[in-house]
Amino acid sequence: MSNKAKLIIGDNSYEFPLIKGTENEVAINVKTLRGATNGVITIDPGYKNTGSCESAITFLDGEKGILRYRGYSIEELANKADFLEVSYALIFGDLPNNEQLAKFKEDIKENSLVDDDVRKILEAFPKNAHPMGVLSSLTSALTAFNPAFVNISSEEDMYNAVVRILGKFPILVGWTMRKKKGLHLNYGSKSLSYVENLMYLMFKHPNEDFQMNPIIKRALDKLLILHADHEQNCSTSTVRIVGSSHAGLFASLSAGISALWGPLHGGANQAVLEMLEAIKADGGDTKKYMAKAKDKNDPFRLMGFGHRVYKNFDPRAKIIKAAADEVLNDLGIDDPILEIARGLEKEALNDPYFVDRKLYPNVDFYSGIIYRAMGIPVEMFTVMFALGRLPGWIAQWKEMRLKNEPIGRPRQIYTGENLRPFTELENR
Ligand code: SDX
Q: What is the structure's pLDDT at 129?
C-alpha cells in the first residue's frame, strides 16, 4: 500500500502522508491540510473517524473484541496481576519487578493521608449530593493542598504526583461513600494492601471489627483492573485536552471525573441498575423495554449495551459476567436482577435491531450487579469506575505532557448569520 493519501478538491490534487501503528492501524496525517488547501478542514462530530494522538498505552480492536494494556492482554492482567501492578505498567510502560513494585506500593502508602481541611469541603455538601460531583470537587481541591504538584516538569515531579494521587484518591472515594451513608470519616491502615485499604475505608463501621472478605477483595481488584484504561474514550480525551493547556494533573483528573459521570459513559453502570430495577418493578417485562429501546420516538436506550468502538463483545463484559456469577454464588446471594440481566442479554443478542447495529453488552452491563452484591450504593458505582480509571487517566496525561503535545483547539464550520448591521434597541 502507498504511504500517501491523495485528496482531490476541485481542480487541485493534494497528497498527505499515511501513519501506520504497530498493530497496522493506518491514519491520514492531515496536519498540513488547512495550509495546503487554503483553509479546507475536516469535520467529524463525535470524532468517530478521527484520531487525536499516537499512543503506546492501550490497544483495542473493536471488531475482534481485543483489549491490551502496554501489550499485555486484559484476560491475563485480570487473572494474574493486581491493580497496582497494572497501574505501574500503564503509567511507566512495563509490569514492575519485585523491587519496583515494593517501592511503588511503599511510596503510595507514604502518601495515603489527606489534609484534614478537606473534610470541611466535604461537610459543606448536602448528604444527597451525587458522589461524582463530590469526588470531582475534592479532586480539584487537592491542587490547593498540593500546590507543588501543579507544574510537573520532570520525571521525578511526575512520579511524586502519581504516588500522591494514587495514595489520596481511595480516601476521597471512602469519604465520599461515608458522607452518603452518614458514617464518620476514617483513615485506612498502612498494614493493609491497596484494595484491602479501600475496603476498610469504605466498609469499616465504628462499632465492629473489620472483617476482610477475600471474595470481595479479589473481585474488586479485578474490576479496578478491567476499568483501568481504554485508549481515547470521552473522559480520557477530556483529561488530555485539559492537561494540554498545562492545567495541573489534579485539575485535569477532576475534569475527567465530570466527563465520566455522564450516563452515556461511566454513569451507565448506575443507569443499568436503575433500568434493571425498573424492569423488575414492572413485573420483569423485558420485552416492553426492548421495544422501548428500539422505538426511535422513545429516548430510552438499553443501558449497558452498545459501544463506540466495540462492534463485538466487550472483552471486559465477558470477564465481569463470569465474575458476577462467581461473586454472587460465593456470597450466597440469589439476586433476581442478575436473572433479568441475563434474560435481557439473551433477547438482545437474538434481536435483529441489536444484531444489525452490533450492539453487545459493554463493561457497564454487569459491573453494577457485583458492586451491589458488595454493598456499594448505586450512586457510588461510577465512583468505583473513576478509581479504576485513575491510572489510565494518569498514564495518558503523562504521555501527552512528556511528549509536549500542542494545546487542543479544534476548528469548526460556521453556519450562523453573515455580517449584518447593529440595530439600535428602540428599532428591534
Ligand atoms: C463506556 O468509549 C469508551 O471506551 C467508553 C468505555 C470506557 O471504558 O471508557 O468503554 C465506557 O462509556 C461504555 C458505554 C456505556 N454507555 C452505555 O451503556 C449507554 C448506552 N449505550 C449508548 O448510548 C451507545 O451505544 C453509546 C453511547 C455507548 C455509543 O453510541 P454511538 O457510538 O454514538 O452510537 P450511536 O448512538 O450512533 O448508535 C448507533 C445506532 C443508533 O441507531 P440508528 O440511528 O442507527 O437507527 O445504535 C443505536 C442508536 O440509536 N443504539 C442503541 C443503543 N446504543 C446505540 N439503541 C438502543 N439502545 C442502545 N444502548
A: 97
